[in-house]
Write the structure tokens for this entry.
Amino acid sequence: MTVTLRRWRADDAALVAEAAADDYTAVIEGLARGGWLEQHIEDTLARVIELDGVAVGGIGAARRPVPGVAELGYWVLERARGRNAATDATTELSRWIFESTNVERLQATVEPWNRASQRVLEKSGFQREGLLRGYAAWGVGRRDVELYARLASD
């Protein structure tokens, strides 16, 4: 299985629609808000994840107010999970960001129950830094998340 990353395009609307049918992905990514695809087409740090040439997910990073820091996020359609697409995409995008931008720290948050996503980060060179209590506000109410990070010097 070969994972590749490419820029978002207007014809990725079907991929976004399929992802929006997954309640968890839709909430975490905010897929219901208008203009999501257009925003990601313009985002220089956002990519489509392809598995053997088929679009199966998305990955990107958002710069934080702290200089040199960006936060990584990713999702993979249910039909493509368990095939290392997220791990390979996370490894590749992290390498590209460190080589091509002034980002020196990539961080990611994941809910404590989401062991699959924690494994993706760990296999991609991220280290768990701790629990952030009540940090996230996805969906209804505040949520705890685990913080992971990878440094350019790692």
About this structure: The chain has one domain: 3-151. Residues 3-151 form a domain with the Aminopeptidase fold (CATH 3.40.630.30). The mean pLDDT is 94. Helices lie at 13-20, 23-29, 36-42, 85-100, 115-123.
